[in-house]
Task: inverse folding
């Protein structure tokens, strides 16, 4: 993680220097905007792209690798023994490793602490902005929401909200501020700032990332100023003068686009500067080779090309005949009767395994020595020593060519690198023969490795096949890893669960569903305790939503004695609780159907919403009326607006129809002003329908 973050920081820093030196003074503000956005995305995406080995500067020399492989075992061991005294002692090397690891670990903790702090700051700013946007007085101007603030803050915008104190400015200045912020909103500048803030969360330690956000913000202001001056209604001198007059303090939230920021001089200078010549756009094309250079220098090279593989095919085949050789460093810890070993063949390839202490020949104590570990697949030759219960050194694995040939004879096609993996899981030829004996004739190495690693033995396979005859080989791995045995399968079958297939057994076990849970759900679905044969498909949904006997009984106490499974699932997922129902019962709703409850909850129909209508004189409201009104966003205040227009004996169904057709109070008022004065609301609904057509 740390190398990736540092690589990202390096790319972002280089892009900032590139922008600062070549692009910042250009007046191609639109182009600069997209360069700044694309570079932020590339900084995080580019390190993940593999580069062809022909272009990568990290390519490993193939001649060096071949020479190592051809060295005989005896010569390698002799060389290692000669060079060993020059190495630091185990204690010195271990101390150095521990210190480095400790520093790296604390750096990782510090980095993630910073990410959490800046992430929380980002969320707090967003929540505060939304709170201000929807808690203060608002004027709706088309798609723009003008939020009137009272404190001494500079005007700003976020999403489609414009925050401004109208009492502070003259009418002309006020209009220019609104026009400026509307340009920010129309061009969706909030997206740029949000992306920059997210980059800062993960690059908080990088000073260039903070400068990048500032450069992006400045360019957005340049772009907006440029768009303002292109309008016929805006004079340059008047606009610049209004910038100087808006001298309020900064808005404290960095997620907003601010009308007045601490860069007035730069903005005015840029407005009066000469436009860039189109011929200077050649500078932008230099960004592409810069990104390619970074990718070639630091990105992980892709796999070897097919041509290189073909050239080395005959040589590799000869090496396999001599015995597969894999080597590297080992680190071990002895605990009780086990030895936990880590094998490191290069910087990125580290694997670990646990062996029995009795599997090894004499381990060298306090002095350099050699020891071996032999299995059917081959032998590992170790060189090194142990001090106390810790040891380290080098290893060399030599595969058993007879083993490889025997595996191929059994139909298991293994490659060079597979032999040591088979060694680690101790996969024997007899294991393959056992699987064939149990009817699994088509065997793949990718299936064999997890089977052997999980010790899926003959006794386990036999017991599972007795309980489930159609079990496939690929199902045995999740069965074993989840602890599924014959007893569990029989328990599920006896519970009445009919579709006892391997996939369903795996799904049930992974969610912790046992026979008792299934029986409880089936017996509790109906009020009389009878089983519901249609409930099998809902068992897993019940478990994932934590629908249990107590949840079902809580509704039975309120009179809901026969709720279907689908309704239970919907009610639980929408958080329809007994308390929610009781609140409506107190308001006079006694027998609300489950379908209406689900619809009401999904539309966020609250008791307060109902009480407002009751206060307005509508006491006999039905649940389906509430659903219809809420879906049309009809409130008691809206009903009052219709009454204020003279419709006193108003039926709620008429209000729903009027709102659905667009016959709003504003529409009716405009029609009355034009001479269409009707006493019946239906007439306005008909008029609206005619005008719409």
Result:
């Amino acid at each position: 993680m740390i190398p990736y973050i540092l690589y990202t920081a390096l790319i972002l820093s280089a892009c900032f220097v590139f922008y600062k030196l070549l692009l910042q003074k250009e007046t191609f503000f639109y182009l600069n905007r997209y360069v700044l956005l694309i570079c932020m995305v590339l900084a995080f995406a580019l390190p993940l792209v593999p580069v062809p080995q022909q272009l990568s500067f990290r390519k490993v020399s193939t001649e060096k690798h071949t020479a190592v492989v051809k060295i005989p075992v005896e010569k390698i061991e002799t060389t290692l023994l000669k060079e060993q005294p020059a190495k630091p002692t185990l204690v010195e090397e271990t101390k150095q490793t521990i210190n480095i690891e400790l520093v790296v670990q604390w750096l990782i903790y510090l980095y993630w602490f910073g990410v959490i702090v800046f992430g929380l700051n980002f969320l707090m700013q967003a929540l505060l902005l939304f709170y201000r946007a929807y808690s203060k007085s608002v004027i709706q101007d088309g798609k723009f929401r003008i939020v009137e603030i009272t404190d001494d803050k500079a005007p700003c915008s976020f999403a489609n909200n414009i925050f401004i104190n109208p009492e502070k400015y003259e009418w002309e200045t006020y209009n220019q501020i609104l026009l400026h912020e509307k340009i920010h909103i129309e061009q969706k500048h909030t997206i740029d700032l949000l992306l920059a803030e997210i980059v800062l969360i993960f690059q908080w330690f990088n000073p260039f990332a903070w400068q990048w956000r500032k450069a992006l913000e400045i360019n957005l202001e340049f772009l907006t100023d440029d768009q303002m001056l292109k309008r016929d209604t805006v004079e340059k001198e008047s606009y610049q003068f209004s910038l100087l007059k808006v001298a309020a303090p900064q808005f404290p939230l960095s997620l907003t686009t601010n009308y007045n920021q601490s860069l007035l001089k730069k903005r005015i200078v840029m407005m009066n500067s000469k436009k860039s010549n189109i011929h200077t756009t050649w500078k932008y094309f230099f960004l592409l080779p810069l990104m390619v250079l970074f990718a070639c220098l630091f990105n992980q090279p892709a796999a070897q090309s097919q041509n290189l593989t073909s050239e080395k095919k005959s040589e590799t085949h000869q090496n396999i005949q001599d015995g597969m050789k894999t080597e590297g460093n080992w680190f071990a810890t002895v605990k009780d009767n086990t030895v936990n070993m880590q094998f490191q063949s290069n910087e990125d390839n580290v694997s670990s395994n646990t062996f029995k202490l009795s599997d090894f020949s004499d381990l060298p104590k306090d002095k350099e020595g050699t020891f071996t570990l032999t299995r059917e697949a081959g032998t590992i030759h170790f060189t090194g020593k142990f001090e106390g219960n810790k040891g380290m050194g080098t290893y060399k694995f030599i595969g058993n060519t007879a083993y490889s040939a025997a595996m191929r004879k059994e139909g298991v096609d293994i490659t060079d690198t597979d032999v040591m993996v088979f060694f680690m899981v101790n996969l024997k030829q007899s294991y393959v023969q056992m699987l064939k004996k149990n009817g699994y004739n088509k065997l793949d190495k990718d299936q064999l490795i997890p089977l052997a690693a999980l010790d899926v033995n003959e006794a386990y396979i036999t017991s599972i096949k007795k309980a489930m005859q159609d079990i496939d080989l690929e199902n045995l791995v999740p069965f074993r890893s989840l602890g599924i045995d014959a007893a569990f399968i029989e328990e599920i079958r006896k519970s009445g669960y009919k579709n006892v297939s391997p996939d369903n057994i795996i799904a049930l076990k992974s969610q912790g569903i046992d026979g008792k849970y299934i029986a409880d759900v089936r017996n509790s679905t109906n009020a009389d305790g009878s089983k519901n044969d249609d409930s099998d498909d809902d068992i897993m949904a019940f478990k994932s939503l934590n629908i249990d006997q107590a949840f079902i009984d809580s509704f039975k106490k309120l009179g809901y004695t026969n709720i279907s499974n689908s309704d239970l699932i919907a009610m639980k997922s929408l958080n329809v609780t007994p308390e929610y129902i009781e609140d409506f019962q107190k308001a006079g709703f006694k027998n609300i159907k489950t379908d209406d409850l689900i619809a009401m909850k999904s539309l966020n129909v609250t008791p307060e919403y109902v009480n407002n209508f009751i206060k307005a004189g509508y006491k006999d409201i039905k649940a389906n009326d509430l659903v219809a009104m809420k879906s049309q966003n009809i409130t008691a205040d809206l009903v009052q607006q219709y009454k204020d227009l003279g419709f006193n004996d108003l039926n709620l169904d008429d209000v729903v129809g009027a709102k659905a057709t667009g016959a709003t109070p504003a529409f009716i008022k405009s029609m009355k002003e034009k001479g269409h004065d009707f006493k019946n609301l239906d007439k306005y609904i008909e008029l609206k329908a005619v005008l719409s057509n």
Remarks:
- Residues 230 and 236 are 9 Å apart (CA to CA).
- The chain has 32 helices and eleven strands.
- The first helix runs from residue 2 to 23.
